Every structure is written in structure tokens, then in C-alpha cells.
Amino acid sequence: MAEVETPLLQKVWYENCSACALERRKIRDKGAPKKELIYVALIVLCNALPISSLFPFIYFMVRDFHIAETDKDIGYYAGYIGSSFMFGRFLSSTPWGFISDKYGRKPVIIIGTIFIIIFNTAFGFSLSFWMALTSRFLLGFLNGSLGPVRAYASEICSKEHQALALSLVGTMWGLGLIIGPAIGGYLAQPAVKYPSIFVDGSLFYRFPYLLPCLCMSAFTAIMLPFLFWLPESIHKHPPLSEDVGHGVTDSKSQTDTLKISGETEENRQVAEKSSVLRNWGLFASIALYCIWGLHDMAYGEIFSLWAVSPLDYGGLGLTSSDVGIILAITGGVLLVFQMSLYPVVDRIFGTILATRGGAILSIPLVAIYPLIAKLHGSMLWGSLIIASSLKTTFSICVVTGSFLLINNSVPSEQRGVANGISMTGMSLFKSIGPACAGILFSWSQKRVNASFLPGNWMLFLILDAVCLITVIISFDPILPHSLGKPRQEVHIQDNYIDQCLERPPSFTF
Fold first, then answer.
1. What is the pLDDT of residue 473?
2. How many helices (H) and strands (E) does the chain have?
3. How many CB atoms lie within 10 A of CB 461?
4. Which of 116, 125, 321 is CA-nearest to residue 210?
5. Which of 129, 140, 120, 131 is nearest to 213 (CA)?
């Protein structure tokens, strides 16, 4: 078709707008904004640390509450506490995303960071089941920075550095989910583990699970003042199409033109009219993401409960410090894989095969976990470290692949809605995971002498069944093969190419 030549609007910068200054810097400076990216990485770490830090000691915490009638019932209550955070996030993630779009990323990030300090510390002071449950729920409900911080990471970078920013966010998120339990395992019950330092009658003797929470809250408090120097990335002025001429004009753009083929414009109009609710590929990708999230959260809680439960019930009889060591080593393996090996895997096998492969390889690995319980000494430790590292590696392939598939399923103008739906669904499934895991774990400990799949054999078989559902969803025609490649599209709005003012979706994480 014949090409139509449309002049671009002049690029107008408002002197008092922090986001405009940020956009000008992105055009002027070719390198990545290192200082801001360091802050973003630390913010993500502060958000990720508390999420799973309780898993190594939740068994002992619930036992100390004296709410469970027997040790076999501890898993029920541990599951409820573990689920409360994600349930709170499920209820509030979308509203917080809208708030960040309207009022800015920076206020939401600062408010969320303040609530991390308050309610993570409150959880450490918990002396009852209901106080622990409430503080974890409010930690998830009132901290809305998880999604906006990912959008912010993209907005502070130019196009060529956005992949680096998102990779950094993903890496720090995964690292926090590993380091958090390691901190919890090392520092919980310090008066018992380190009696020469923490004497009877001290603060940490009365509140045995305060120290890990307090350390994470202190780290977050140190970060908080630096957030006030972050530049806001949301523009606080009328759209450029409504108000041209009240700011500073980039003279270079006055001669720029954009050539658009009639076919591209027609495709854009079709994409804008298409409904997200009729996008089969999107909902198949979200289903894969949610089902795996359910499996991943259930596995995380079951692994920690299984590791510290008594040998008589099929557990490993380890301490919370032992679990912390294993997870710390796993975190190191995850960091190396995510930063250096996953891009190679994705490039060689493609997004869909890498995602499917991670789910398939997890099935035989999880199936042999009951056999690990029969080992002792160095063989037990070596097998646990290898199994945990491999499982985390396979999981990161599925999680990263799922995120890519969701973004590949819609044009950019629909990604805010698409990722809002995926965020809400994922939070719901991840809130169900720990509760179901706790119930199943308690049930498995009551049938250690069953004739058919006794104890942990049935438990890990159910985890494998969820893995199998993920594998099935990853095949065509359920998951369209076309989602394995990114969309190629031109973004046009009001005759202005949306390159320097593109806003990534607020709800993705």
C-alpha cells in the first residue's frame, strides 16, 4: 500500500516535571542509569525478603503458639499464616496499580516500603496465631509497590537498557525469595542457638522470631531515605496532544517524520478494537503462570516443613539453621543461572520449550524426594542441596517464560490490563498454595503407615500432579505456538510516536 508521511509532534519538555527531566536524560545519556538501578534492585530485595522468610521457622512458631492439638496439626495453621500475605496482595494489587498510574510510582513505592518496616516487625513480635495471621495479611494488603517497581525499572531506562533492568528485577526478586528463608533459618530462636549472646530473659528470648524480622526491617529502614531522591517517572502535566508550547522544545525533533504503511495502521486499529477477554493465548499463558505459582508456593512451604519435621513422621529432623544453609546455597546457584545461563537457554530452545522443559524436569526430581529422606549424613546434605538447586533452576525457567508469554500475547496498549489480570490471578493461586500445602502436609503425617503411597509419597505425588497440569497447558492448541516470539509492532498515539514516553504496565511482577 502507499505510504503516508505524518509529521511528528514536537517533543515538549516541562521544566518542573521530574518525568520530563528523566526522559531528556534518557535521550541525552546512552548508558544505563546505574544509581537508580541499584536503588531499584535494593527495593525489590526489600520486598522479596519477608515473603518466604518465615518458612524455615513457621513450624516452630505455630508449635509455640500452642494452638495445634497435636504436632500433626501444625501444618494446618502454618498454611494459613503462609497464605495470608498473598491473599492480602490478591485483594489490593490492582488498586495499588491504578494509584501508581494516577499519582506516580514514587509515592506508592515509599508507602509500601514504610508498611514493610511496620508489619514485618509486628510479625516478629507475634505471640499468638491471630496476631501473626493479621500482621502477614496487612503486610501483603498495604504494600502495593511490587508491581509499580517493575514498571519503574523500565521507565527509567532507554529502550536498549530495559532488558537489563527487568533482568535485574527478576534476579533480585528470586534472590530475595532464597535469602529471606536463609535469614529466617539462621536467626530464628537466637536464645536457643546462641545462648552465650542472647541470654534468658532478653528481648529475643521472649520473642524468639523477632531477630530475623527485625534485621530485614532494619535493612528496609536504611533504604527508605534514599527513595525520596528517586526521580518520578509519571508525567504531571496535560498530554502533549492537548498542550504543545508550554515547555522546552527539542529542536531536533522538529524535522523528524514517521512513515507508516497503511497495513500497519490497519493492524493497529484492529488491535485496539480487539478485546482482552477474547484473547485465548493470553488466558492460556495466565493459566500456566497461575498453576505454576500454586505449585511453587506449595513446594516452598512443604520443603521447609518436611525438612524440620521429626523423623518419625517421615521428615528430615533438620534445624531451621540447616534449612537456611541449604537455601543460601540454592540462592547462589539461582543468581548464577539467572544472570548468565537462562538467556542462553531461552535463545537456544525458545521461550515455550524452556518453560515446558522446566516443568517436565521438575516431575521426576520432586518424585524422588521421599527417597532422600532415607539418606544420612553427607549423602543427605549433598542430595538436598543438589535437588533444591535443580528445582529452583527449573522453576525460574517456568516463571520467566510465563511472564514473557503473557507479554507476547497482547499488543503493548493492552499489557496494563493483561498484566493486571495475571497479577490478580497469580496472587490468588499463591494464596491458596500455602494453605493447601499445610493441610496436605498435616494429612500426610497422619498416614505414614498407610498401605498405598504412605506419608510423603502421596504428598510429593500431588505436587507432581500440579506440575503435569502445567506441562499439558504448555502444548498447542492450548498454548498457541506463536507466543514463543515477541510481537513486532509500531506504537502510535495522536500522531506521536510513543518511544520516549512509553509507560510500561504497572501491575507486572
1. 93
2. 20, 6
3. 13
4. 125
5. 120
Query: Which residue carries 497422619 as its cell?
Result: 446
Provide Rg for the chain, Cα atoms.
24
Per DSSP (E only), the strands in 449-498 are 492-493, 496-497
Measure the CA–CA gap between 296 and 219, rounded to whole angstroms. Answer: 27
> In terms of DSSP H, where are the helices of 104-158?
105-124, 129-142, 146-155
DSSP sequence for 165-234? HHHHHHHHHHHHHHHHHHHHHHHSSHHHH-TTTS-TTSHHHHSTTHHHHHHHHHHHHHHHHHHTTSPP-S
Q: Are 202 and 194 in contact (CB under 8 A)?
A: no
How far lies 163's CA from each of 33, 158, 341, 498, in Å? Answer: 13, 10, 15, 18
Whole-prediction pTM value? 0.72
* pLDDT higher at 58 or 417: 58
Pairing of strands 248-249, 257-261: unpaired
d(CA 139, CA 115): 7
| pLDDT tops 60 at residue 248 | no
Contacts of 132 (CB under 8 A, 6+ apart): 61, 65, 81, 123, 126
Please indicate whether residue 354 or residue 421 has the higher confidence score (pLDDT). 354
Give the DSSP H or E segment for 487. none
Alpha carbon distance 425, 303 (integer Å) = 24
